[in-house]
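Work Package 3 committed the consortium to producing structural models of liganded targets before the mid-term review. Because experimental data for this complex are still outstanding, the team generated a predictive model from sequence and the ligand definition alone, so that downstream docking and mutagenesis planning could proceed in parallel. The input record is reproduced below exactly as it was submitted to the modelling pipeline, together with the SMILES string for guanosine-5'-triphosphate.
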Amino acid sequence: MALEFSPMLVVQVDAVVYLVDAYDKERFAESKKELDALLSDESLANVPFLILGNKIDIPYAASEDELRYHLGLTNFTTGKGRVNLTDSNVRPLEVFMCSIVRKMGYGEGFQWLSQYIK
Ligand SMILES: Nc1nc2c(ncn2[C@@H]2O[C@H](COP(=O)(O)OP(=O)(O)OP(=O)(O)O)[C@@H](O)[C@H]2O)c(=O)[nH]1
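The resulting structure, written out as tokens with the ligand in place, is given here.
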């Protein structure tokens, strides 16, 4: 009898970094839809989410509050700085604004994220 092997890929995701163009307001609805799909993915249920709002060097770009509102995250962010969520069963999620071309903002976001990665 021949043994059969079914290929299985096991991927462990430590975190999700979700980059949104804060200048492209017409696509916020699309960004929300994609983000919602990731947030409701069971395999990512306990994974921390860092949401980066990019292109804040452009004056017309959305503010952090505006982005949080349009992505439906107003009451879901878990707090900047060191917040201990270990026993709370709450997934870490925060919004940081950045400008990748100006090399600013995302450092704070990744620093925040690093406290939740084992
Ligand atoms: N002003 C500014 N431009 C940026 C920044 N980051 C990327 N870009 C520019 O935006 C342009 C398009 O890049 P993206 O917005 O990343 O495009 P994309 O996500 O690949 O494509 P779309 O899915 O169509 O948005 C490029 O010319 C980048 O140089 C930023 O922080 N500020």
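Reviewers should note the following from the model. Residues 16-114 form a domain with the Rossmann fold fold (CATH 3.40.50.300). These observations will guide the Year 2 experiments.
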